[in-house]
């Protein structure tokens, strides 16, 4: 969570009113975060890990 907050600060300063942004703007940032490899996930992306979990459960 702390790391994600740090990454979000790249796009939004602390205290930013997110209602000023469109859904498309927020979705763009969401996609960038979810497709960024993470060391804590052995350099997988959160999206890759989620897909693997879904496939495993199916």
From TrEMBL:
GO terms for biological process: transposition. GO terms for molecular function: transposase activity. InterPro entries: Transposase-Integrase (IPR051917). One of its GO terms (cellular component) is cytosol. This is Integrase catalytic subunit.
